[in-house]
Design a protein that fits this description.
The chain has one helix and no strands. The protein has about 30 residues and is an all-alpha fold.
């Protein structure tokens, strides 16, 4: 159970980081 929560947390963070990089790349 904890493993699933951890994976979801990491995936969510990864998605946020990727979206931030894409937005920054468009602005730059």
């Amino acid at each position: 159970m904890y493993e699933i929560v951890t994976v979801l947390g990491i995936t969510r963070r990864g998605v946020v980081v990727v979206l931030a990089l894409v937005v920054l790349d468009q602005f730059v």
